[in-house]
């Protein structure tokens, strides 16, 4: 399997509190990888570093053989608008915008024409079975509908990698399963690589491989650590 994304010796602290203690991971093209572990172990921090949202204090982040951790914030933002998609636990939709406009937003920021962006947004709403919500604002939707809208927004640019941080954490079990089923189906259809952070073993079961963190380092007792030469380096 071709390597698409890697982190090497990632160290990150918040003030004097260490979050990542020298984590090394690799993700192959087309993989769905779950990052698991107890609360506070560094899962979300690892995802934010790999996605270029946070810059690590030490170590390297690479995407398609390009080291990106030293890029400017503007350059990393362009990468997220085009080749990376991000889905957060609470969706983070713009409250004042209806669903179609929320989904179209990444395309508009990338320079697409408004009509083209809305057409693409409507198509994604249809793929997710919520076309009737095109003109509904987030406050008029259920939690599951909001998260499916956020999933459409994350995928509308057809990113190479989708970063999903506890995407079902705020949903009941049925809504969570519906979102995960659609996330996995769409990722497989588009061959989108997925890095999925979760504390839920049922959610991790949707992934091809699991990486476990504990106290900011890879847990050697975790599953899937042999794939693609994964290893942990103590910080």
From TrEMBL:
Species this protein is from: Rugosimonospora acidiphila
Against PROSITE patterns, the record matches this protein to: ABC_TRANSPORTER_2
Signal peptide residue numbers: none
Q: Which domain of life is it from?
A: Bacteria
Q: What's the protein called, per UniProt?
A: ABC transporter ATP-binding protein
| MF GO annotations | ATP binding
Which UniProt keyword terms apply here?
ATP-binding, Nucleotide-binding, Transport
Q: Which InterPro entries match?
A: AAA+_ATPase (IPR003593), ABC_transporter-like_ATP-bd (IPR003439), ABC_transpr_LolD-like (IPR015854), MacB-like_ATP-bd (IPR017911), P-loop_NTPase (IPR027417)
Classification from the root reads: Bacteria, Bacillati, Actinomycetota, Actinomycetes, Micromonosporales
Please state every residue range assigned to the domain named ABC transporter: 5-234
Q: Could you tell me which SUPFAM superfamilies the record lists for this protein?
A: P-loop containing nucleoside triphosphate hydrolases
